Structure formats: structure tokens, C-alpha cells
Amino acid sequence: MRTVLALLALFALPALAGDIFRHRTADGRTIFTNSPTRPEGAVESRKYSDVASRLVALVPGTPSNPIERERAQSEVRLAETDLMRAYNRLTAEVLPRQDEIMEIPAIDPAPPIRGRPVKLPKTPEYYARIGELTADINRAQKRLDAARERFYALN
User: Fold this and answer.
1) Integer-rounded Cα radius of gyration of the chain
2) Contact present, 133 and 90 (Cβ < 8 Å)
């Protein structure tokens, strides 16, 4: 263990010796250099001169504070709750209502064949209602994905 720490300290010394410049390109890549000249395609550059800011520069992403992380985590929890509510609404209302079943003309009064389910034709209103419930689930899922992405970016 001591050997690993000694090697880590040995390799960290050159990084702490001079100034570190962190450049971000338009496509989101991060480039670290020790020269102040901006690489081609860089949209943001920053100089890290003291030891603490140099160590921050070595960590990818932007530093976040605990309040931002807590806010992002509560957004994730709220989005998860909304998604569960949307799923519950769909499962509770998946069966057609009485006014959403089309009437079948009584041509053959014989009972259906045993073991085969009877398919009841449904009205367009049923499919529109189910489509709205499914769209609610899709919106809630997108909101959850965005909230998780924000949360993971802060950690």
C-alpha cells in the first residue's frame, strides 16, 4: 500500500509543478495542456495556478456544491414518483369503459366456442384515451432521464 501511495505521489508531482490549462472543445472534449496557447476548436479555456485548483482541474466535469446535488436528487425522486403514477394510471384504466365498447349486432345467438376469449371491438375514444396515458408515461420517462443525467453530471 505504501508503494502505491509513493508512486502516486511521484506521478502527481509533475502535474503540480507548473500551470495547468484546461480547454473545452465544442464537442465536449476536455484537453489539458501546460501551455497557454489555445488548441484549435477550443471554446473555453481556464488556467489553474495554485495547488487546490490544479487538483480540481484533474477531475472531469464541473465541481458542484451539496445544495445543487440535493436539488438534483430531489428532482430525480420527483420524476420517479411521476413515472410510477403514470404507470399506475395506465394499469388502472386499461380496461375499456362501458361506453367505449362497440355493440355487436346479434346475428348468431350461439355462445362462443369454449376457451376462446371474446374480442370486443373498442371505439376510437378508447384508443385515444390509452394513447394519452401512454404519452404521459413517455413524458414522465423523458423527464426522469433528464433529471438523472443532471444528477450524474454533478457527481
Assistant:
1) 30
2) yes
Do the Cβ atoms of 126 and 95 come closer than 8 Å? no
Q: What pTM value is reported for the model?
A: 0.52
Each residue's pLDDT tens digit, 94-122? 888 888 887 766 665 566 666 666 677 88
For strand 20-25 and strand 42-48, is the pairing parallel, antiparallel, or unpaired?
antiparallel
10 Å Cβ neighbour count for 23? 19
Please write down the HEC assignment for all residues of the chain. Answer: CHHHHHHHHHHHHHHHHCCEEEEEECCCCEEEECCCCCCCCEEEEEEECCHHHHHHHHCCCCCCCHHHHHHHHHHHHHHHHHHHHHHHHHHHCCCCCHHHECCCCCCCCCCCCCCCCCCCCECHHHHHHHHHHHHHHHHHHHHHHHHHHHHHHHC
Confirm if 141 and 81 have CB atoms less than 8 A apart. no
The CA-CA-CA angle for residues 64, 20, 9, to 5°, reads 85
List Cα–Cα distances, 63 to 47, 55, 67, in angstroms: 15, 11, 12
Q: Provide φ and ψ at 13, rounded to 5°.
A: -60, -45
